[in-house]
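Hey Z.,

So I finally got round to the adenosine-5'-diphosphate thing we talked about over coffee. Here's the setup:
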Amino acid sequence: MSQKQHTLFDTQPEPWEQDDQSEQPVASVVLLQGPSQQFDYRVPDALCGRVEPGCRLRVPLGKGNRLVTGYCVRVEYRPAGSRRLKPISELIDHRSLLSPAMLRLTEWIADRYLCDWARVLETVVPAGVRGKAGSRLTTLLSIAPEKADRWPTMKLPAKQAAVMKALARSAQPPTPAELARRAHCTQAPVTSLRRKGLIRSQTVRQQQQQSVEPATVCQPHLVLNADQRRALDAILATLNSRQHKTVLIHGVTGSGKTEVYIQAIQEVIHFGRQAIVLVPEISLTPQTVERFRSRFGRVAVLHSHLSDVERHGHWQQIAAGEVPVVVGARSAIFAPTPRLGLIVLDEEHESSFKQETAPRYHAREVAIARAAAEEVPLILGSATPSLESWNRAQTGHYALVEMPRRVLGRALPMVGTIDLRADQRRSSRPPGAVSRQMHGAMRAALDEGGQVILLLNRRGFSTHIQCPACGHVLRCPDCDIALTHHRTRQIALCHYCDHEVPAPTACPLCDFAGIRYSGLGTQRLEAEIRTRFPGVPCLRMDTDTMQGRGSHERALAAFRSGKVRILLGTQMIAKGLDFPDVTLVGVVNADTALHLPDFRAAERTFHLVTQVAGRTGRGDKGGRVLVQTFDPDHPAIQAAVRHDYAAFAAGELPIRQMLRYPPFTAMVRLVVRGPREQVAGEFAAEMAERLRAALADPELAARVLGPAPAPFARLRGKYRFQIQAQAPDDEQLRRCVRQATTGLSAPDDVQWIVDVDPLDML
Ligand code: ADP
Ligand code: ZN
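And the result:
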């Protein structure tokens, strides 16, 4: 974690050596294995002028001079005393993989998220680019220039003469195989000619063609309405100021935000610059992509299903400045656009913008840093901004633009709640997932030719398997998590580690035959819907049904075409979809996330209900939303029912402030885990003690909570303890955490992670 400079001397410096006045290039290198600080190496004469920051190198390390790989991060001229540094052994990349600006960004990320710089570098440069996927070394042949005049007069064997003639006719330098084919011979005569010096060869790296396909249709722009105009003007004002500014567009679902992004991008492209558009992976649907393709022709789409070869091809074209628009999920923020003009981050409240493995960066924060460094505007858009962004807009750090109306005078849907407590009291038989009222509304919507979306944020059939005789709950042996019954495969499955057992018919503990399956998952909901609405085509979308490549697209296409009338599923159906015929959205249980031990539980619930409600009323038929809940008076649900983001924020922010939670304080979460509960717990206690010492200064107004068992106290056989460190000043907090954790050595079987600005609190 320390960024201190270390130098490796082969020998101690002699006084007379320091008299040498000449200078020598020295490369600072971040190693991919071994110690995390930087090391300096001498650039040997053979590599002089070829080693650039952003290239990978092989360098000797330690007493045994073991060769390790690292990234060159700086080249400096130093007095020749530096001759005593070890020399670089090998240059891996002949062209830098990172521009100076991107290299600085990686250093910023390492510092901001308290992780190794090397780890960041490996994240930013995709594996396909590092491995040069889809490219290979090729030998290309040409006639040796000094023999160009003489060979026609030379006496050559017939085959060799044919080869020379074929080569002379080649417009581009051919490979040996190509040349042999053209001369209708084997490669033997080609080899002889190379040996004689008549043919010269050169080795180059060639990229397989993986180009970003240009789209065919090009749609004209829409005429913006007044709200959209205002939003675009705010963006253009910052564009023209040539300064960085973040603009938060708070626009209700269907207010036409995407059209604003498109026209802002148009402006940027007009000036020969490029735009990066970040969307949550889940909304990287053909529908989204098509909207950009049909306007801009060449759009690079970076999604997680790309092969290494495709990714490398896109990367090269983006880096060459050939692609004006890059659309992608989180990691597209690292797209190597040489002339960036604008960054758009849509659905900015989405937690998928945060990476949950090291480096645990948030694409929004990285986007701010990148946009500031490259002096371009950043547009954040959402119907339900994160409270972090909202607070920054309220305090003047962002420009705020409101788009409170839907386009074309369309109304926001009416949202009603259904009190499940009342419904369950009334009914005598075991209740299903769908209340009487919901059933009636579905019937009516279907009868009028509309489509229905049903959201239930739990997959599987039964979410709870318990023996009524002894109380035993079926849990994962390795995780602190109850198993979920999946009926299609008759298994009980751990949703964390995928451990599975055959679904039991009797209690595994006491043998009681009446073991009970309860709790509602999407599979059970689907079965219920098929019974309630026989003959109505219905489709379930959750991670179980959406495994195959393209299954997501196929499902959405079936729904769009109207073949499927009821779409039910987990949150993957809540986001970004735009189907004009959906006239009813039902939330089966709005409370699933409300009572999790997470200070953002209310915010998540508000987001989810508001977002899924936004899926209806997008066409001429209008639409309504019904929300089933056990807690209809909860402020998050009340605010979502009234489409009142401001009210939600106004109610929630004072609570955060009072409890000293983000956005009013910076937070770092540390998680310690290990197979032995006591060992892990003791190490966590030591860590907490160090943190308390580092943050003891009352000026910091910091607090350290824990260690305490994490809400998921055991996962994959490891006991987990968490510590939260909080302080109002994020920079001071990070500095103290770095200080407290540097040089801390954990027992062999204990691992720990640092999560800056954590979103996952479980
Ligand atoms: P949001 O991104 O805010 O959800 P969209 O940009 O997707 O909103 O707009 C919703 C729908 O309205 C889309 O089908 C879009 O084509 C259409 N639309 C957007 N702006 C206009 C406009 N100015 N005139 C007509 N239709 C528009
Ligand atoms: Zn498990």
